[in-house]
Amino acid sequence: MTALRTDLETVSVHVAAPVARVVLDRPADHNTVTARMVEELHEVLSRLAQRPELSTVVLTGAGSTFCPGADVRPGRSTREVPAPESYQSARLLHEMPQLTVAAINGGCAGAGFAWAAACDLRIASSRARFASAFLPVGVSGELGIGWTLPRLLGAARANELLFLADRFDAETAARIGFVARVVPDAEWAEGLDRIVAELAGRDTEAVRGLKRNLVDARTMTLGDYVELEGARHRERFTGAAAEQTYARLEAQAATLRRHGAPR
């Protein structure tokens, strides 16, 4: 098992397989980004990517904020720059073997917005607020935002959010397709736990296999992809995996007999 460091200062990690929760952990400063946070998040994600018992990685913020980007308050900014390789945290969120879920519990802008965009799913509290926030502070973007956002929302919407940089709320984020679910803030902890528990209840190898399929599909022709997808699908019905697959199919059939097929 790949061990995690115990001396992290800006990120905390809680692992209860098959789920790992990664927390941007500077609540006194609203989880604003520092060079150390970027580097620690990259290291944590790199190590979690090597854990085969994990199907899901949830990224969230400590307290009532997700991550509003860099601290631009007078006297608070520093000239520290993260190590170049640490910007690959966005690629890890996008490509690591686990399903990645951004649990957006509050303000989400700048680097936080880019990290959320790199995840596979985004779940938001109703009190969450969003903005790209790069141009207003004189930078063009980071952490893959120019690659991930157009693929999520289309070029026109991505251009709008990046160039105009308007703030928008959780309902708007759901309407434009940036977030998959909005949970009432009063029910945030319980609602998020239900969603994560549902994902955790899925077969770990099936979740990881679907993630591999989706990542591979972005760089393959349809014919090549169908061949690869079919081979992976057949693996679930042969060898050691077959017994578990058939057991799940039988359990699902029993559920349908009790409650009826969905209409």
UniProtKB/TrEMBL annotation:
It holds the Pfam family ECH_1. CDD domains: crotonase-like. It comes from Jatrophihabitans endophyticus. InterPro entries: ClpP/crotonase-like_dom_sf, Enoyl-CoA_hydra/iso. This is Enoyl-CoA hydratase/carnithine racemase. One of its GO terms (molecular function) is catalytic activity.
